[in-house]
Please model this.
Amino acid sequence: FGSYNLLADLNMTSSIPVISIGSLLEPDNTSQEEAISLIGNACEEFGFFYIRDHGVSDSILQDFRDACTEFFNLPQEELQSIKRNQTNSRGYYNDELTKTKLDWKEGFDFGAQDGSLDLSGRDGENQWPNAEKIPKFESTMRVYFDTMEKLSIVLLSAIARSLNLPSDYFVPSFEGNHTSFLRLNHYPKCPKPDETMAVHHHTDAGALTILLQDDNVKSLQVLYKEEWMLIPPVPETFVINIGDMMQVWTNDKYKAPLHQVLASSSHERYSAPFFYNPGYSTDVQPLDGTGDPKYKIVNW
Model:
C-alpha cells in the first residue's frame, strides 16, 4: 500500500492516540494496565485509536498488501465471475451503497460463518478467484484473517478489562461462532471528488474494526465534536474503531464513531478493514451497572 512516514501529520490533524499493545501480547506481563487505561480512554473520547507493537509480522503485511494489489489488477471478467449477489454477500463488487449513496470504490468481501471460512450460511459462502490466475491469494487471505481474529481477541479482552469486566467476558459471544469478515477496498482516482465520497458516512455494525490503511493517502475522517477530523496513516500501525454492538453493550459509554472516506482525484487508495462480529445467536444488551438501559435487546 505504499510508504508514508510523516508522523508530524498526526499533530496537525488529530489527537487520536497511538497506543503500544506489546504488553497485552504477553500474558504474564505486569505492565498491561497503562495500555488498558489508554484504550478505555480512547474508546470513550473518540471511539478510534491506533495500535503499534501489535505483533503482526512485516512479511504477513507485505504478502497481504501484494495480494490485494494483484487481486484488483485481475481482468474485469475474472472479477465479475465472483461478484456477490442477492443471495450471497461474499465476493467482488463495484456497486456498494452506503446510506443509499454509491461509493467511489470496488471491493471484495469474505468472512466466517459460525467461526469458519469454510461454512456457508446466512451470509452465503466465500468465493475465491481462479487459483491459476492468482495462486497464493486464498492462502494469503486465510493467514491474514486468522491473524486479525487473534488480534481482535486481544483487543476485546483489553476493552473488557477497561470496563472492569473479566478479560474473557465477551468470549462466549465470539468463540467458535463469530461472523467476522474481511473487506478489501480499492479506491480509484475520482475525476470529481467534490461530488461524491469514497465511502459515505456510517458507523460499523459489529463490536470492533481493525483497519490497515494505505500509507500514501490521507482520506479517512471521523466526526468528533461535530467536526470532521482526519485520521492520517501512521507507519507500522492499525487503526481501531468500536462498532454499534459495543455501544449497546456499554450503554453509550463507548460510542461507535461516525466516519467517512474522502475521494481523491490524484491518488488511488487501498485499505482493508477486518470487522469482528459476534455469533448470530448473540443477544446484545446494556451491561449491568451502566445505568438505565438506553437500548432493548439486539439479536445480532
